[in-house]
Design goal:
Radius of gyration: 33 Å
Helix content: 10-25%
Strand content: 25-35%
CATH topology of the largest domain: OB fold (Dihydrolipoamide Acetyltransferase, E2P)
Strand order of the largest sheet: 5-6-3-2-1-4-7
Structural class: alpha+beta
Shape: elongated
Number of helices: 15
CATH architecture of the largest domain: Beta Barrel
CATH class of the largest domain: Mainly Beta
Distance between the termini: 102 Å
Largest sheet: 7 strands, mixed
CATH superfamily of the largest domain: Nucleic acid-binding proteins
Number of domains: 4
């Protein structure tokens, strides 16, 4: 037996003492332990022990087998190193077998493009299909893998290889995966599920073996949680999806409609973290799955984690929608959920700020005052009481829009195109975009009603009206708003204050009051319109 030589006199003396002690054990010259459990138990001098450190076994392995993952296949490297234990049971007790086994797994943070014969041990946190948006053709499987260090990586299996792996790959399963490619993102990708600079690809040589969860613990979820306040900062960054957590405020509402004869739906709700609120919309089957999951939980606070949500915006208001990678978890076991649950129990979850109290007292203004508001009113709401005498039946009453991007489409060469994502929409989705020319004693402005408010007043969606009406012809049901007075709650935008736009969006509309007179000037009205970017209106209202 050889003992490494020390690098200084003190080390050499220590090695000499340790060597003699080991030899004395072999010669049966060590006294037995007085309080030992067995007759052959001996006492190990404290100077030869390193049990004060929680990870002393890891330290021992790392010192004996440095950079094991890079050298485990080299015979010389292994032949020069050994960890001695008295019995096999001691090996099992110290978990040396497991630790040595897992030392051959590479950390996700160490993966790079230099080779493909990597081996990792990971859990499949999420699996979803990749579908070509234009052709609807299946492209392959996407997986989010996490390891015992709680690191994540996005993996892709091409459609031609899926038959080899899809049977064994299940959400939550733990796998040993070997021989795969690692690539760095180009930088122009959008809506990535993980904020990592690299991802992995399966190939024909890839081996994926499912394991029993008996080794080092891998958490079921690895999240990169953001505060809801961060969404305003991140709204223009479409590189990544986002993870958030909060309480569902109120009851989610389902809306059903048709697009070119196809039944569609969405489920809308508000998410809060106690101090901030954000609107969330889940579409079609994903929204239905949320409602189904909520059925047994309606009588309690529902804390939801939304992983890989997409940030979008409408009228400068941030909201969240679902992407194919999006997953939700209700009242799950996670530190963030436990923190919120404890905060609710201690009545410290909901936070009222001085700004919020001021916002509740919505000031009432006239049109003249509204048009004169300054920059300190940007993103604040005001109330204005207006009347409308007559609706122009020749005006547009709905728009075509891109649901994921939440923006109106533009017509280019007789085809609809989204100005944000650049995709062509041969069968565009539609929503109300209805402008009314409203007046009071101080002036006249165009007011745009939101899709939600018009659906609430009419009880019908655009698709319902077009299904029973005369195509694009102005529907009679919208004439019900004539000769009535409404109190509009409008949000003042930066376009209104800084760019001179006189088009205002009504976030809320009161129940109407019948009017017998009008504040409109005598004769026909010709009002020059300075629209916002969201407007689809002509340059004049007649």
């Amino acid at each position: 037996m050889r003992i490494n030589r020390g690098t200084n006199p003190a080390d050499k003396e220590c090695m000499k003492k340790f060597t003699q002690w080991v030899l004395d054990i072999g010669d049966n010259e060590i006294e037995r332990a007085v309080d030992g459990a067995f007759e052959d138990d001996i006492c190990i001098p404290a100077e030869f022990c390193n049990v004060g450190n929680e990870n002393y076994i890891n330290d021992m392995i790392n010192n004996t087998f440095p950079e094991f993952a890079q050298h485990f296949s080299e015979p010389t490297y292994l032949s020069e190193r050994a960890i001695l234990t008295p019995t096999n049971s001691t090996v099992a007790h110290a978990s040396l077998t497991d630790i040595m086994t897992f030392s051959r797994f590479s950390a996700l943070s160490d993966l790079n493009e230099s080779r493909y014969y990597w081996t990792i041990r990971v859990r499949a946190q999420a699996i979803w299909q990749g579908i070509n948006v234009q052709t609807k053709v299946f492209c392959g499987l996407n997986i989010i893998f996490i390891n015992d260090a709680n690191h994540k990586i996005h993996a892709f299996i091409a459609a031609t290889l899926c038959d080899k792996f899809k049977t064994d790959l299940v959400k939550g399963g733990i796998y040993e995966i070997s021989n795969f490619y690692v690539k760095v993102y180009n930088g122009d990708e959008t809506y990535r599920a993980i904020r990592s600079a690299k991802h992995m690809y399966f190939n024909n040589d890839t081996v994926c073996t499912k394991e029993v969860d008996t080794g080092l613990k891998i958490q079921p979820l690895s999240l990169d949680l953001h505060c809801l306040d961060d969404l305003e900062i991140l709204k223009n960054d479409n590189r990544f999806l986002i993870d958030v957590v909060g309480v569902i405020d109120g009851k989610p509402t389902k809306f059903e409609y048709k697009t070119d004869g196809v039944d569609r739906s969405n489920v809308k709700f508000t998410l809060t973290d106690g101090s901030s609120y954000v609107n969330v919309t889940f579409f079609n089957e994903f929204g239905d799955s949320l409602l189904k999951a909520l059925e047994p939980k309606l009588k309690e606070h529902v804390i939801i984690i939304i992983a890989s949500a997409k940030i979008s915006q409408w009228n400068d208001e941030v909201n969240l929608t679902n992407d194919p990678a999006t997953r939700f978890y209700l009242n799950c076991t996670h530190y963030s959920v436990n923190t919120i649950r404890r905060s609710i129990a201690e009545s410290t979850f909901y936070v009222s700020t001085e700004i919020e109290e001021i916002e509740k007292e919505v000031p009432k203004v006239t049109i003249k005052q509204l048009l004169g508001l300054k920059a300190d009113y940007i993103q604040r709401t005001v109330c204005v009481k207006l009347s409308m005498k007559k609706i122009d039946k020749t005006m547009s009453w709905y728009c075509n829009y891109c649901i994921p991007c939440n923006v109106d489409l533009k017509l280019e060469n007789y085809r609809f195109k989204c100005p944000k994502c650049g995709r062509m929409k041969p069968y565009p989705d539609r929503r109300y975009e209805f402008f009314m020319l409203c007046s009071d004693e101080t002036g006249t402005i165009p007011v745009m009603w939101t899709d939600d408010e018009l659906t609430r007043f009419t009880g019908k969606s655009v698709y319902d009206i077009r299904a029973v009406g005369d195509g694009d012809k102005f529907p009679p049901i919208l004439l019900q708003f004539e000769k009535k007075c409404y109190t509009f709650t409008v949000r003042v935008s930066k376009e209104n204050v800084l760019e001179g736009s006189n088009v205002y969006t009504a976030e809320k509309v009161s129940h109407p009051e019948e009017i017998s007179a009008t504040h409109d000037p005598e004769g026909k009205i010709s009002l020059a319109i300075k629209p916002t970017d969201n407007s689809q209106i002509s340059s004049k209202f007649q």
